[in-house]
């Protein structure tokens, strides 16, 4: 490996990591994690749906899509005071970042103005801010930055090759363009994937390679486990093997060692043992709270109890513990 954080990974290299014996893979991933972060700290974010349902996109996993009958009713944009009340609750519960999601293909200017005011008010509470509002133009990204938005979430979901099996109403390049607009505006990027949608190992490897080969690694990489929602296109998708999910977390940590890797959707279905292995493999962020947009999430008390068992504590941000050169040299030794 090169003695720098890399952006030129080959697919064969990524597949090599996926093919390692499980213990070897976790050893390499945990070593990378420990070099960049306190291994016993987990950053907590809270996600709120500020505009639910009625989305024009046909994402096969999403109950908010107007293309499916998943029992989610279209609602109007929440009011600012209602959003602020939820943000205060999140801060009290220990969250350091407040994420606002709206089921839009892309925001309208009048909606963007309202969201901008929400961002300013949430930041005034001392919380980091994140938003996921669909596709953005360069001008819209600049407006969000001017409002003080810290992170913008826009997932790639899967590999470009498999993407058309999941979504047809926007292209893969549309997603990449939005990420570029976010970077050009000076915001941090939150971008990850959903696993368990019927994709192959090659697709997972290619997705992670695409993320790691962006000009800058996403500062936050959410790894979502598909939640099979009745009425959606993927309601009967075959479940992914638990160890395959953990391997995906580990490889994400190796390829993007200085990024936060977040356990996102699907934690409600994960055992404590599975989550513990994910934390060891390099996950160091979770969504905290009883709901993620429209799907269930573990109750806060349950998470606190699990953290107590594992000796984990929350943090407001990770502090790198070694240089990029040191981590790369360490990985070179470990990989033999």
What does this structure look like?
- The chain has 336 residues and is an alpha/beta fold.
- Helices cover 41% and strands 15% of the residues.
Strand and helix layout:
Elements: H1 11-18, H2 22-36, E1 41-51, H3 80-93, E2 97-102, H4 109-123, E3 128-132, H5 138-147, E4 151-153, H6 160-163, H7 172-184, E5 188-190, E6 193-195, H8 201-212, E7 220-225, H9 242-255, E8 260-263, H10 272-281, E9 285-287, E10 291-292, E11 295-296, H11 300-310, E12 313-315, H12 324-335
Parallel strand pairs: 1-2, 1-9, 1-12, 2-3, 3-4, 4-5, 6-7, 7-8, 8-9
Antiparallel strand pairs: 10-11
Helix pairs in contact: 1-8, 2-9, 2-12, 3-4, 4-5, 5-7, 8-9, 9-10
Defining key terms:
single chain, 336 residues, alpha/beta, ten-stranded parallel β-sheet, two-stranded antiparallel sheet
